Amino acid sequence: MNDGRKTILYVDDDPDFLDTMRLLLEANGYRMIAAQTAEEGLKAVREHRPDLIIVDLMMEEIDSGASLVRRIRALGVTVPIYLLTAIGDQMSAAIDVHDLGLAGVFQKPVDHTALLDALRAQLGPPAAG
After folding, report:
1. Exposed / middle / buried, residue 54 (Cβ in 10 Å: 0-12, 13-18, 19+)
2. Distance between CA atoms of 129 and 81, rounded to whole angstroms?
3. Which of 102, 101, 129 is nearest to 118 (CA)?
4. Under a CB-based contact definition with an 8 Å cutoff, are residues 72 and 45 in contact?
5. What is the pTM for the complete model shown?
6. What is the pLDDT of residues 95-128, one digit of tens each?
7. Domains of the chain, start order
8. Structural contact between residues 28 and 52, judged by C-beta atoms closer than 8 angstroms
9. DSSP assignment, residue 6?
């Protein structure tokens, strides 16, 4: 299933955010793999070897996104990872971006232009489809 598009894994337990992100990413030339739990996310990392990962901070537990990032890094995965949070600046300030090896943190609702700019900076321009 290699059509030249970069693969982005998006892990979020909110189906509406998954749908919105899929529309955004696919309309902009990326392939999206969705996972609704940390365990599904780990499985998808192993199976699909995404080029970039986006993880929601709050899923099953308040910091399950941060825990998932640690588990992904423990597998030796070095692709860029972005964390999304709806909690606000206090929690974001408590997240050690360098400790987790994050490429960045975005607030929900996500600024689509900023996100796409970040993806292009990490992955280069999307493949022409």
Report:
1. buried
2. 24
3. 102
4. yes
5. 0.90
6. 666 678 899 889 888 999 999 999 999 999 887 6
7. 7-123 (3.40.50.2300)
8. no
9. P
